[in-house]
Amino acid sequence: MLGRTYETQDCSAARALEIVGERWSLMIIRHALFRDVTRFGDFQRSLGVARNVLAARLDQFVADGVMVRQPLAEGSAHQEYLLTEKGRALRPVIIALTHWGDQWAAPDGPPVTLRHAGCGGEIHQRTVCDCGRTVSAEEVVADPNRSRTAG
C-alpha cells in the first residue's frame, strides 16, 4: 500500500493512487468486477497473492469504502467482500488500463476481449466532450478549478 506520499499534491489522480495504486489493488478490484470473486480464499487462489498482503488490501478497501465485509450467509463465520458503488465506479478505470495493456504490454495479443453483455459487441472506450464530440487525449487540457485556487 502506498503511504501518504502525495499529501502535498492537489491532484485527484494522486489521491486515487493512495487508495488503488498498490500493485495488487486493481487486480483484486478486477477479480471482484469481472470474475465475481467475493471470498478471501477465492481471491487468494485466483491471484496467488500472499495472504497477509491480501488481508491488508481488503481491510484497507473496507476502511476506504471501496468494499464492504459481510457474513457469507447468516450465522456463517466466513466473510465475503462486496464492492460498494465507489468500488464499482472503478470499472472504467480497469477497462481503460486493460485496453492500454492490450496495446502496449501484450506481445501475444489481448488475453481477453471485453464485450457488451447485451449484444456481444466489443467494448471501446472514448473520451467524449459535453458537445458530443469524441476527442483525442492530445485535445484534453487540465483547467484548474478556479473556485479552489481563488483566495
How do you describe this structure in short?
One of its GO terms (molecular function) is DNA binding. Helices cover 41% and strands 9% of the residues.
Task: Give the SSE map.
Blueprint: H1 12-20, H2 25-34, H3 40-47, H4 51-63, E1 67-71, E2 79-83, H5 85-88, H6 91-104, E3 127-128, E4 134-135, H7 146-149
Antiparallel strand pairs: 1-2, 3-4
Description:
GO terms for molecular function: DNA binding. Helix content is 41%, strand content 9%. It has a domain at 12-112: Arc Repressor Mutant, subunit A, CATH 1.10.10. The protein starts with 11 loop residues before the first helix and ends with a helix. The protein is globular and about 55 Å long. The strands form two sheets. It has a two-stranded antiparallel ribbon with strand order 1-2. Strands 3-4 form a two-stranded antiparallel sheet. Strand 3 and strand 4 form a beta hairpin. The chain is mostly helical. It has helices at 12-20, 25-34, 40-47, 51-63, 85-88, 91-104, 146-149, and strands at 67-71, 79-83, 127-128, 134-135.
